[in-house]
Amino acid sequence: MHTQVCVIGGGISGLSVAAGLALDAQAGEQAAVVLLEGGDRPGGVTWSEVKEGRVLDHGPSSWLSGEPALDRLLELAGLQDQLLSPSPASKARFIWARGERHRVPMAPPSLLSTRLIPWGTRLRLFGEPFVGRGDPEADESVADFMARRLGEGVVDRLVSPMVAGIYGADPRKLSVRAAFPKLWQLEHDHRSLLIGAMKSRSPGPRPQLQALRGGAGTLSRGLAGILGDRVKTGRRVQAVEPMGEGWAVHTDEGRITADAVVLATPAHAQAATLRGLDAQAARALDEIPYAPIAVVTMAWPAEAFSAPVEGFGVLVAGDSRDEAPVLGTIFVSSTFPDHAPPGEVLLRTMVGGQPDPSGAALDEQALLARVHAAHAKFCGAPQGEPRLVHVVRHPQAIPQYSQGHLRRVAVARQAQVRHPGLFLAGSHLDGPGVRDCARTSATVAAQVRRWLATGETDSGVPV
Ligand SMILES: Cc1cc2nc3c(=O)[nH]c(=O)nc-3n(C[C@H](O)[C@H](O)[C@H](O)COP(=O)(O)OP(=O)(O)OC[C@H]3O[C@@H](n4cnc5c(N)ncnc54)[C@H](O)[C@@H]3O)c2cc1C
Q1: What pLDDT is attached to residue 173?
Q2: What share of the chain is helix, strand, coil (3-state, %, to 5)?
Q3: 245-253, long-range: CB within 8 Å, 24+ apart, which pairs?
Q4: Cα–Cα distance, 411 to 401 (Å, whole number)
């Protein structure tokens, strides 16, 4: 079989590249595309199910609005009218620290009064504009960067829970420049984060959290649906090799030839596919670590709790994980009431991540006991039994943008220059969020179009 473009990997990255090439008439001439997915369903970790009126997001659940590439995908999939905004109750966000649930301070007055961070650190915050720039050549960790700018006291109490919530990561291992490029840029451009944030505030509407009525998986299902039989599941790719003017893609089920190949699999899978072709790129991709996460969803009758469970959810401070050894719990039914039947409390708890990889591998009984104990701390001990318990494990959940990440990505991307017609996409390149994957994929789709039309490649250029 021959096609113009063979996309490998059917997560949100691969589906976005394929949809951008095959369906987006606005972007230019449509290309003939085949997408090969190794698993038995498209979507990768962007996967959700509906059980008796409860929406169970097993991977991503929400994202910030305002990314045009993601808006375009939602439009292509016909899902704009399925977007949900969070309830007003979810404005309250909490952090569990040393035996107490604290409301996250979202504005300067509450920053001054909160007992979440030590008073010395609270005063220190006002000195931030006077702290000089760091070494622009240093690959500083998120923890060192934030401690230098805002004081050591913010690391465990504010930074660590935030980083665990976004990346399942440890801020002491994450590169600030790779994981939070906007923050790094603020210091670079304005010296101070506070001054930079004020100066660079755009006049338009601020990005808002959004989710899909049927769960995030409706986006992957929607894209796969309109791609139709271009999507082939159960086709694990072993290797790719240049052949004539194009490429041969080797799968368990035989060979496909294509003018261009897009690898949209996780870094470790890209490494395996490229091992025989480009050892240097394969080594760099192999060095990108992934953190394991177990996602535990529990549905409780509302009366199981003595007080209403309201707010966005609870993250756990870095110095309090011995008390509540989970990354955090989202109060799904409070944040997106459409995701749970009335009268029910739906809680989604993440366990593991980089701070506690063995937590994600606990046997089911120990995992559920841990989650139950965390719920008791966060919401008050529930009475009776949950109506639903569901566990999904992601052994390699989220790529960790650790120190050295930007170099690894640059080395991997050189493969695109050495092997014209080969393109890389995925959550390990320019941000792990759904909106980041959509943006990277839109850029890759444009690069592939250019390659097909002119034979020119600018694919070494990051997005
Ligand atoms: C638990 C969890 C919660 C998250 N929460 C959020 C959130 O709330 N908001 C947000 O924005 N982001 C969130 N993320 C991050 C985001 O969902 C992911 O980074 C993103 O979905 C990754 O998409 P992807 O297509 O790059 O990779 P994947 O979804 O991993 O897809 C890769 C696909 O490639 C396939 N594959 C692998 N090897 C081969 C092969 N050899 N041949 C063929 N196919 C292959 C796999 O089967 C898979 O389907 C979360 C992630 C996880 C795991």
Answers
A1: 95
A2: 40, 25, 35
A3: 246/421, 247/6, 247/421, 247/422, 249/6, 249/8, 249/36, 251/36
A4: 15
Least confident range of 27-31, 48-52, 153-157, 450-454: 27-31
What is the predicted pLDDT for the residue at 106? Answer: 81
Domain range for 238? 2-45+218-288+402-454
CATH number of domain containing 133: 1.10.3110.10
Better-predicted residue by pLDDT, 24 or 308: 308
Number of domains in the chain: 3
For the chain, percent of residues with pLDDT exceeding 70: 98
Identify whether residues 328 and 364 lie together within a single domain.
yes
How many angstroms does the Cα of residue 12 sit away from the middle of ligand 1?
A: 7
- Residue 462 pLDDT grade (very low, low, confident, very high; cuts 50, 70, 90): very low
Residues 223, 43: Cα–Cα separation, whole Å: 9
User: Which two structure tokens, joined as six digits, stand for 122?
Assistant: 């609270």
Task: Verify that 385 and 424 share a domain, yes or no.
Answer: no
Same domain, 406 and 368: no
pLDDT in tens, 78-127: 999 999 999 999 999 999 999 999 999 887 778 888 999 988 888 888 88
**CA 397 distance to own-chain centroid:** 9
Residue 456, helix vs strand vs coil: coil
In a domain, residue 357? The reply is yes
The per-residue pLDDT for 455 is 85
Residues 164 and 311 occupy one common structural domain: no
CA of 3 to the centre of ligand 1 (A): 25
Looking at residues 219-243, what average pLDDT do you find?
Answer: 97
Same domain flag for 281 and 410: yes
| Pocket residues: Cβ below 6 A from ligand 1 | 8-14, 36-39, 44-46, 59-63, 236-237, 264-266, 269, 273, 293, 295, 394, 397-398, 426-427, 432-434, 437
Q: Ligand 1 centre from 398 Cα, in Å?
A: 8
Q: What is the pTM of this model?
A: 0.96
Q: For the beta carbon of residue 127, count every other beta carbon within 10 angstroms.
A: 11
Same domain, 123 and 187: yes
Task: Assess contact for 350 and 16: CB atoms under 8 A.
Answer: no
